[in-house]
Write a structure and sequence with these properties.
193 residues, alpha+beta, L-fuculose-1-phosphate Aldolase, 5 helices, globular
């Protein structure tokens, strides 16, 4: 049985109104491009994949859990992550939907590099195979959406100088690729070029 698409963290979800459209408009636009390219979507079993975020205040705004298969998303599909405690496998999010299963991974990237303003996680079999162990690559024993993945991201930042590469292959998360950068254009262009 696969564990794809399942949230593995503990969460305090504060139900709140959606973020203003002006705040997430560029997120929606880039997410639409990635969906059209098949990099965000849903598997044949209906499990969504892929997520996108921007740095916001002390945390981030990220697409919600199981929104991958929705063709056109809006503010109601995003939430604010305001607190992450890796040691406790716990986060706090506020919005109309619970944060994506990869919220801890996004938070780790923001924590590792203050210049990063956008993070994108997609699935692409062809690109993943090309990047695996060529680009910085997570350990194959580390599952997605866990504190261990966040710590693995931190390890890559420490050991591989990821700030210059801005792309990670996730060996333990088949087809999983992460890009990040100073804005959504920079992060998204790495995937669409």
């Amino acid at each position: 049985m696969t564990d794809e698409g399942y949230i593995k963290y503990h969460c305090q979800w504060i139900r709140a109104e959606p973020v203003e459209l002006e705040v997430v408009q560029e997120l929606c636009s880039w997410r639409g491009k990635l969906f059209a390219a098949g990099l965000i979507g849903a598997d044949s079993n209906g499990v969504g994949f892929g997520n996108i975020s921007i740095r916001w205040d002390q945390g981030c705004i990220i697409s919600g859990t199981q929104t991958g298969g929705i063709a056109t998303i809006g503010p109601e599909h995003f939430t604010k992550v305001t607190q992450v405690d890796l040691a406790a496998n716990f986060l706090v999010c506020s919005g109309p939907i619970q944060a994506s299963s990869e919220a801890m991974t996004h938070a780790a990237i923001y924590r590792c590099n203050a210049a990063v303003q956008a993070v994108i996680h997609v699935h692409d079999s062809h690109r993943w195979k090309q990047l695996l162990h060529v680009a910085p690559t997570t350990d194959s024993a580390v599952p997605y959406g866990t504190p261990e993945m966040a710590w693995e991201i931190e390890r890559l930042f420490r050991e591989k100088s990821l700030g210059n590469r801005n792309i990670i292959a996730m060996a333990g998360h088949t087809d999983g690729i992460i890009t990040f950068g100073g804005n959504l254009q920079e992060s998204g262009s790495l995937l669409l070029s």
